[in-house]
Amino acid sequence: MPGATVPALSPDAPVADPPRPARWHGQAPVVAVVAAGGGIGAAARYGASLLWPTAAAGFPWTTFWVNVAGCCVIGLFMVVITEGRPVHRLVRPFFGTGVLGGFTTFSTYAVDIQRLMEEGRPGTALAYLAATLLAALAAVWLAAATARRLLPTLPLREKGKRSS
């Protein structure tokens, strides 16, 4: 605009922070290992469903045991990596989020409950819902407690030290 003046900046005026580089570059390895681990875990779950298929009107035992076993491993794994040996920073996202996240399945659990309800088996659906929840929580707790009892036999992580 002609005749417009630019206001003078005071030396005390706050200066805007310079633009930050995108965090994506630092997160790319994490995203990559989660994706790779997720593929491995999902393939293992799919393999379990091929080995032990659920009958059309049957109880979803394969999904039940996959989720319970996965929760057991999560309980053990989290104690070992947080209280035991130092591990590389990508181990947790690869194995915990990727492999075990792909192996365990909340979506199939929900679909199984819906299928049982649609088949007119609400008692079985509710039993499956409750049994999975209780067994999965018990598996995490028991595995974590067992790992803590066995952990003194492992070289421990120094307090306050993070692994790279």
From TrEMBL:
Q: How is its activity regulated?
A: Na(+) is not transported, but it plays an essential structural role and its presence is essential for fluoride channel function.
Q: Which GO terms describe its molecular function?
A: fluoride channel activity; metal ion binding
Q: Which GO terms fall under biological process for this protein? A: cellular detoxification of fluoride
Q: Which UniProt keywords apply?
A: Cell membrane, Ion channel, Ion transport, Membrane, Metal-binding, Sodium, Transmembrane, Transmembrane helix, Transport
State the InterPro entries in the record. FluC (IPR003691)
- Per UniProt, where does Na(+) bind? G101, T104
- Output a single Gene Ontology CC term carried by this record: plasma membrane
Q: Where is this region: Disordered?
A: 1-20
Keyword Transmembrane assigned to the entry: answer is yes
* Tree of life domain: Bacteria
Provide the reaction this enzyme catalyses: fluoride(in) = fluoride(out)
Give the transmembrane ranges. Answer: 30-52, 64-82, 94-113, 125-147
Give the primary localization class. Answer: membrane
Localisation: Cell membrane
How does the entry describe its membrane topology? Multi-pass membrane protein
Q: Which family does it belong to?
A: Belongs to the fluoride channel Fluc/FEX (TC 1.A.43) family.
Sorted alphabetically, which HAMAP family does this protein's record hold?
FluC
- Any idea what job this protein has? Fluoride-specific ion channel. Important for reducing fluoride concentration in the cell, thus reducing its toxicity.
Can you say what this protein is called?
Fluoride-specific ion channel FluC
Q: Which organism is it from?
A: Streptomyces scabiei (strain 87.22)
Q: Which gene encodes it?
A: fluC
